[in-house]
Design goal:
The protein is α/β, with parallel strands linked by helices. The chain folds into four domains: 21-90, ADC-like domains (N-terminal domain of TfIIb), CATH 2.20.25; 99-170 and 367-526, 3-Layer(aba) Sandwich (Rossmann fold), CATH 3.40.50; 173-366, Dimethylsulfoxide Reductase, domain 2; 622-733, Barwin-like endoglucanases (Beta Barrel), CATH 2.40.40.20. Helix content is 31%, strand content 17%. Strands 7-6-18-17-16-8-9 form a seven-stranded mixed beta sheet, with helices on both faces. It has a six-stranded mixed beta barrel with strand order 23-27-24-26-25-28. A hairpin with a 5-residue loop joins β4 and β5 (62-67). α4 (112-130) packs across α24 (510-521) and α6 (173-183) crosses α17. It binds ligand MGD (2 copies), iron/sulfur cluster and molybdenum atom. Residues 140, 142-143, 167, 170-171, 327, 331, 364-365, 432-436, 439, 459-462, 465, 477, 479-480, 510, 626-627, 635-636, 638-639, 702, 707-708, 711, 724 line the site of one ligand MGD.
Length: 735
C-alpha cells in the first residue's frame, strides 16, 4: 500500500529539484573524480572514521566498496558495518516523498511544495502565538557538519528560534563539559597512534571490540607488549581479550578513581612538572585523603589490594599510560566528575601531551566531533561562544547576518526541551537524523509528549522509524553515500564523504532541504551563499579563526583528501613553519603544557560521589546495564537492519544477558522467555546465560526499541547527559 502511494508523486517543482544536473540528492560529484573508477569516503557509522574506497560504475554510481589501505586511521581495515555500508541505501522503507498526516490521522504522501508550505505555516503560527521559545529542533552527530551548521544557523538566525540540541547529548556531552571545565575548551587531546605507543592502556566504560572494532585493531598493533586494563562491570569481549579486568560495581568509577589518586599522591608517584601546569592540586590532595582503598572497597566491589596494585600500574614513572573512556563513564548521573577524575590522574602522573598517553574520550557517532564544533547548539558555530559579544560579531561578519539575529542565551538541553514539550511550553519539534522515540531514556514518556505537541516534523531516510511513525510531517532525506560533506573523528581528524548514489525518489540531502526551508520561510537571502556543502565549509572554516579548533589552513575538500584527513587545529600557515604543527599525519594536543584556560593551566575538578539514583531493592532487585550488543548492530537499527548480511550476525529478537546462578534461582534456562520490569515499563526478552555479567546485574542491548521503556530518567547535573547505564529492574519467568 505505502510503496504504491510512495511511487505516485512527481510534481514539476520537485522534479526540477531532484534532477538538477550534476547532483545526486544534493552532493555534487566533482567532475575531476568522474573518470576515476573509485572515490574515497569516510564511513557513516562510528567515530573511528575509517576511510572506504568506493568503486563506481561508468555513471558514477557505487557498485561496491573496500577499506582504504593508506588511510592513517583504519590502515586498510573495516568492521562489518563499514563493509556493508551501501546496503541500507536500498530498502523498501526509504522515505521517497514527503508524508503528511491527514485528517483521519494517516500519514499520506504529498509533494515538496505542500510539505514546505505546511512546515512554514504551522511553525510560523506557533511562533506568532507563543514566541521564539515554543519550537525546538533535535538533531544528530551523524550528518556532515556543513549540514549541522546549516540547520543550527537557519533555525536560530534565520527562523528566529532559540532552542536546539542533538543526540550528542545522549552520548558526548559529559566529555564536552569535562574538557571545557578542565582544559578551557572541548579538546580531546590524543591521537590513535597513542594506542600503539602506550605501555599501559586503560579502557574504562569502553567496549572497543564491539563498539570501535578498528580501534581495537590499533591496540593490537602495539609492539610494546602493553598491559591492557578494562574497567567495566561486565567481562566484555574487550575485557576478555585484555590483560586485566576490573569487574567494577556499576557506577563505582568515581570512588575507584579517587582511591587511585589517593594512593598515587600518598606515595608521591607524581610528575611535578605536569602538576605545575595545573590549578587545584592542594585541594585535591586534601580531598582524596578520605578515599583510601579500604574506604571504597564496598562502593567499587574491589579489594584494597587490587586498588593498590592498579594505582601502581597507572603511575609507573617510566611507562606511558593512556586512559580511554566511552559510555560507561559519559552516561552517568556523575559522568562529568568521573571523566575529570580520569583527566586528573593523567595530569598528576604526567600522562598527557606525550606519545602513548592521554585522557581521551572515544566519541560514538561518525560526526559527534563535528557536532561539538559546528552544530550551533551548545556552542556558537565554529567553536565560539553565544555569550561572548566578540564571537557574535565575528560570526555575524563571517556569515553576513545581522548580529541581532544571534542569540546570546544558551539553548535548553535535550531533556529540558522534552520536559518543556511535556508541559506544553514547546509546541513544535523538528527532529533531524535521530530517533528519540526509541533511543531517549524512559522513552514511554515520548508518547505522552507527542499528544501535547501541536506539530512534529521528522526528517529521516526511512518512514518506518519509531519517530517518523509518530510525526505529522515526514521529510524524506538522502543518507550517507548520497551526499557530500565532512565528518570529524575521535582524534579530531576531518575527512570527506562523497555522493556515490542517487537518493531514491524525491529524497533530498539535508543540506538541500534546509535551503528549501530557508526560501519557504522567507529568509533565503540570508543563506544565499550556502550554495553547496563546500561553500558552507569555507564559511564555517573561517569562523574557527583564532579558536583552539582553528582550521583556517584547510583550503577545501581536495586538500583534506590529499592529506589523508586533517586533524584540528590546522591554522593558516600550518604547511610552512607554524610553531604548533610539527607532524602533519598524527598530532596530539598539549605537548607544550599550555591549556586553553585563561591562566593556561588545567583545572583539577572534583566532588564527592553521589548515590545511585535508583538502586536495586527487594521489589526491583537487579541492576540493568544497557549498551551495544554486537558490532553489526547500530543504535535503533534503522540502517543496520536493512542489510541481509548484517542481519545474520545478531539475534533478531531482544535477549537479556543474565548470570547462570541468577538464572538458576529463577528456574531459567538458555532461551527461556522473561518479562523485565522497571518502575516505568516492561518488556519481554529471551534469556542468554552469561557468566560475563555479575550476579544481581543484567544487560540489555540498546538496539531493541523496548529497552528504553525501562531506563531511569536521571541526568548529570553539569552535562545533562542521561544516565542510561544503571537502573533497578525485576525479572519474571514467562508463564
Ligand atoms: N556496533 C556498534 N558500534 C557502535 C555503536 C553502535 O550502536 N553499534 N554506537 C556508537 C556510539 S554512538 C557510541 S556512543 C559508542 C559507545 O561505545 P561504548 O561506550 O564502548 O559502548 P556501550 O556498550 O554503550 O558501553 C560501554 C560499556 O560500559 C559498560 N558500563 C556500564 N555501566 C558502567 C559503569 O558504571 N562503569 C563502567 N566503567 N562501565 C560501565 C557497559 O557494560 C559496556 O560494556 O559506540 C559507537 N559504536
Ligand atoms: N538504553 C540506552 N539507550 C541509548 C544508549 C545506550 O547506551 N543505552 N546510547 C545513546 C547514544 S550514545 C546514542 S548516540 C543514541 C543514538 O540514538 P539515535 O540517534 O536515535 O539512533 P540512530 O538509530 O542512529 O538514529 C539516527 C536516525 O537518523 C536517520 N539517518 C541516518 N542518516 C541520515 C541522514 O543523512 N539524514 C537524515 N535526515 N536522517 C538520517 C536514521 O535512519 C535514524 O532513524 O542512543 C542513545 N540511547
Ligand atoms: S569501525 Fe566504525 S568507522 Fe570503521 S568501518 Fe566500522 S563502523 Fe565504520
Ligand atoms: Mo553515542
Amino acid at each position: 500500500m505505502l510503496s504504491r502511494f510512495l511511487k505516485q508523486h512527481t510534481g514539476p517543482l520537485t522534479r526540477d529539484l531532484v534532477q538538477e544536473p550534476g547532483h545526486f540528492g544534493l552532493g555534487k560529484i566533482p567532475s575531476r573524480l568522474k573518470p576515476s573508477s573509485t572515490v574515497t569516503s569516510i564511513c557513516g557509522y562510528c567515530a573511528t572514521g575509517c576511510q572506504l574506497k568506493i568503486h563506481l560504475d561508468a555513471t558514477g554510481e557505487a557498485i561496491n566498496l573496500s577499506p582504504q589501505a593508506g588511510y592513517p586511521v583504519n590502515l586498510g581495515m573495516a568492521c562489518p558495518k563499514g563493509w556493508q555500508a551501501l546496503d541500507p541505501l536500498e530498502s523498501p522503507d526509504r522515505a521517497t516523498v514527503p508524508l503528511l498526516r491527514d485528517r483521519s490521522g494517516k500519514l499520506m504522501p504529498t509533494d515538496w511544495p505542500t510539505a514546505l508550505g505546511t512546515f512554514t505555516q504551522r511553525l510560523k503560527e506557533i511562533q506568532a502565538k507563543h514566541g521564539r521559545e515554543s519550537v525546538a529542533f533535535l538533531s544528530t552527530g551523524q550528518i556532515p557538519f556543513e549540514e549541522m551548521a546549516f540547520l543550527g544557523c537557519l533555525f536560530k538566525f534565520g527562523m528566529g528560534f532559540l532552542h536546539g540540541d542533538a543526540n550528542t547529548r545522549q552520548c558526548m556531552s559529559t566529555a564536552v563539559t569535562a574538557y571545557k571545565q578542565s582544559f578551557g575548551f572541548d579538546a580531546p587531546p590524543a591521537c590513535y597512534s597513542d594506542f600503539e605507543e602506550s605501555d599501559v592502556i586503560v579502557l574504562i566504560g569502553a567496549n572497543l571490540c564491539i563498539a570501535h572494532p578498528i580501534l581495537w585493531q590499533r591496540v593490537m598493533r602495539n609492539q610494546r607488549n602493553p598491559q591492557i586494563i578494562v574497567i567495566d562491570p561486565r567481562a566484555t569481549e574487550t575485557a576478555q581479550a585484555a590483560s586485566q579486568h576490573i569487574a567494577l560495581k556499576p557506577k563505582g568509577d568515581l570512588a575507584l578513581l579517587y582511591a587511585l589518586a589517593h594512593c598515587i599522591l600518598r606515595d608521591g608517584r607524581v610528575d611535578a612538572a605536569s602538576i605545575a601546569r595545573t590549578e587545584g592540586i592542594e585541594e585535591f590532595t586534601e580531598f582524596v585523603k578520605d578515599y583510601s582503598p579500604t574506604s571504597v572497597a564496598d562502593r567499587t566491589g574491589q579489594s584494597p589490594a587490587t586498588i593498590e596494585a592498579l594505582a601502581l600500574s597507572v603511575s609507573q614513572p617510566n611507562k606511558r599510560v593512556s586512559w580511554w573512556w566511552t559510555m560507561g563513564i559519559n552516561q552517568s548521573y556523575e559522568g562529568v566528575r568521573a571523566a575529570q577524575a580520569v583527566i586528573n590522574l593523567c595530569l598528576i602522573t604526567g600522562n598527557i601531551g606525550k606519545p602513548g598517553t592521554g585522557p581521551s574520550s572515544i566519541t560514538g557517532q561518525c560526526n559527534a566531533m563535528g557536532s561539538r564544533l559546528f552544530s550551533n547548539t551548545t556552542s556558537l558555530v565554529g567553536g565560539n561562544d553565544f555569550s561572548d559579544p566578540e564571537h557574535r560579531e565575528k560570526v555575524s561578519a563571517g556569515l553576513r547576518i545581522p548580529v541581532e539575529s544571534i542569540p546570546s542565551e544558551p539553548s535548553l538541553a535535550y531533556d529540558q526541551i522534552l520536559a518543556a514539550a511535556e508541559s506544553g511550553e514547546i509546541k513544535g519539534l523538528w527532529i533531524v537524523a535521530t530517533n528519540p522515540f526509541h533511543s531517549w531514556i524512559d522513552s514511554g514518556r515520548l508518547a505522552v509528549l507527542r499528544e501535547r505537541l501541536e506539530f512534529l516534523v521528522v526528517q529521516d531516510m526511512y518512514f518506518t522509524t519509531e519517530s517518523a511513525l509518530a510525526a505529522d510531517l515526514v521529510l524524506p532525506a538522502a543518507g550517507w553515500g548520497e551526499k557530500s560533506g565532512c565528518f570529524i573523528n575521535s582524534e579530531r581528524r576531518i575527512g570527506t564523504l562523497k555522493a556515490v548514489r542517487k537518493a531514491p525518489g524525491q529524497a533530498l540531502s539535508d543540506f538541500r532541504i534546509f535551503r528549501l526551508i530557508a526560501d519557504a520561510w522567507g529568509c533565503g537571502e540570508m543563506f544565499e551563499r550556502w550554495t553547496d556543502p563546500e561553500a558552507a565549509f569555507r564559511m564555517i572554516r573561517d569562523l574557527t579563526k583564532d579558536r583552539p579548533c582553528d582550521i583556517t589552513g584547510v583550503e577545501g575538500y581536495e586538500m583534506i583528501d590529499q592529506m589523508g584527513g586533517v586533524q584540528w587545529p590546522y591554522p593558516a600557515g600550518s604547511q610552512g613553519s607554524h610553531p604548533k604543527i610539527t607532524n602533519l599525519v598524527s598530532r596530539r594536543l598539549f605537548e607544550d603544557g599550555i591549556y586553553y584556560t585563561p591562566s593556561g593551566k588545567a583545572k583539577i575538578l572534583f566532588s564527592p560521589p553521589a548515590d545511585l539514583p535508583e538502586p536495586p531493592d527487594s521489589e526491583y532487585p537487579f541492576t540493568l546495564l544497557t549498551g551495544r550488543g554486537t558490532s553489526s548492530q547500530w543504535h535503533t537499527q534503522s540502517r543496520t537492519s536493512k542489510s541481509d548480511i548484517l542481519k545474520k550476525l545478531y539475534p533478531a529478537r531482544p535477549y537479556v544477558e543474565i548470570h547462570p546462578k541468577d538464572a538458576a534461582r529463577y528456574h531459567l534456562k538458555a532461551g527461556s522467555r522473561v518479562t523485565i520490569r522497571s518502575r516505568r515499563g516492561q518488556m519481554d526478552a529471551a534469556v542468554y546465560l552469561a557468566p560475563t555479567v555479575q550476579q544481581g546485574q543484567i544487560f540489555l542491548p540498546m538496539h531493541y526499541p523496548e529497552v528504553n521503556r525501562l531506563t531511569h530518567p536521571s541526568f548529570d547535573p553539569h552535562s545533562r547527559q542521561p544516565n542510561y547505564k544503571a537502573c533497578a529492574v525485576s525479572i519474571q519467568r514467562f508463564p
